Amino acid sequence: MKPAGSIVFFTTASGAGYGMLFWLGVLGALGMLPETIGFGLIALGLATALFTAGLLSSTAHLGHPERAWRALSQWRSSWLSREGVAALLTYVPVLVFGLLWLLGSRPVALLGLLGAVGAAITVYCTAMIYASLKPIRQWNHGLVPAFYLIAAGFSGALCLAAVTAFFDVTAAGRLAVLALALGAGGIAVKLAYWQAIDGSVSASTPESATGLGSIGKVRSFEAPHTEENYLLKEMGFRIARKHAAKLRVYAALLGFGVPLAMLVGVAAGAVPVAVLILAAACGLLGMLLERWLFFAEATHTVVLFYGRQA
Predict the structure, then answer these.
(1) 256 found inside a domain
(2) How far is CA 304 from CA 219, 228, 245, in A?
(3) 96 burial class (0-12, 13-18, 19+ CB within 10 angstroms)?
(4) Which of 69, 116, 87 lies closest to 10 in space, CA to CA?
(5) CA–CA gap between residue 269 and residue 292 (Å, rounded)
């Protein structure tokens, strides 16, 4: 699939934002985060800005963004619609939670937990938009929603640790340990996912796609047109295997390797703010690259009609 910059940014930014919101709600309810107004404004403000920017950027990929609201009515059958509904509902507890923090009151734990649940559900719905698409074997895999959730929690913990370090070193250290565990789980799931898609083949063939399998082997006699059309440009986007292999290494190193190495140092001693900020920046950059690859390596079975492999 042709990676759209708006969607790559959306899934990365919203994932980090919802990850931050999740940990703010859960750890805030447990009393494990600073309760100052300054921390609340910066941490909750950054989380909200990230997932809001991501949600807004996703509309740039639509032909008619002004009609996006109509998708909300299809929540019974569409994961895209469910994502929109969940995202909107999540704003309610988040805004009240933030308002209480701004007024200097102790945020109600229930509101934080509701926001955390909403964040997790929204990220899961985003993942299922892709994982539910059977014509794309690289997406129709059980590890896709698992990685989306872990990646959101990891990037959110990285960002929150960097912010928390300005207010409470001890709390930042706990977040660094949490991010370390999530990062280890995230790279394990991603490696397993890459191995799974490399070792699998599409269940669809030219014979099954055309319905002519009973006759015999089916092959394309002649291309239906002299140049690529919209379907081939969007759904038949191809990236060379050698380039994909290199980009996987870069994504794994930037997204997990470098941040995890920094977090080990943080967990073992002091909590330097600069190190946590750099770890968060590397993690987000790696997530952008990983997400670009997630789209670039996916191929729709429609390409079978054009003589390509799915």
Answers:
(1) yes
(2) 9, 14, 24
(3) middle
(4) 87
(5) 35
Q: Residue 244 maps to which CATH number?
A: 1.20.1630.10
In Å, how far are 84, 136, 166, 279, 282 from 155, measured between CA atoms?
Answer: 22, 26, 18, 10, 10
Kindly report, residue by residue over 150-205, the tens digit of the pLDDT. Answer: 999 999 999 999 999 999 888 888 899 999 999 999 999 999 999 998 887 766 66
Give the model confidence (pLDDT) of 256-282 as tens digits: 999 999 998 776 666 678 889 999 999
120 touches 159 (CB < 8 A)? no
- Residue 50 in this model has a pLDDT that exceeds 70: yes
Amino acid at 257: G
Which residue segment(s) compose the domain that 99 sits in? Answer: 5-62+71-208+226-306
Closest CA to 273 of 178, 158, 183: 158
Numbers of helices and strands, H then E, in the chain? 11, 0
This prediction has a pTM of: 0.88
% of the chain with per-residue pLDDT over 70: 81
Q: Does residue 238 belong to any structural domain of this protein?
A: yes
Q: List b or e across 70-82, with b for residues whose CB sees 16 or more CB atoms inside 10 angstroms.
A: ebbeebeebbbbb
- Which one-letter DSSP state was computed for residue 195? H
More confident residue, 148 or 223: 148
Residue 213 lies in a domain: no
Among residues 248, 246, 245, 282, the alpha carbon closest in space to that of 262 is found at 282
Q: How many domains does the chain have?
A: 1
Calpha distance 202→243 (Å, rounded) = 22
Q: Contact 298/304 with Cβ under 8 angstroms?
A: no
Joined tokens for residue 119: 């964040």
Residue 198 covered by a domain: yes
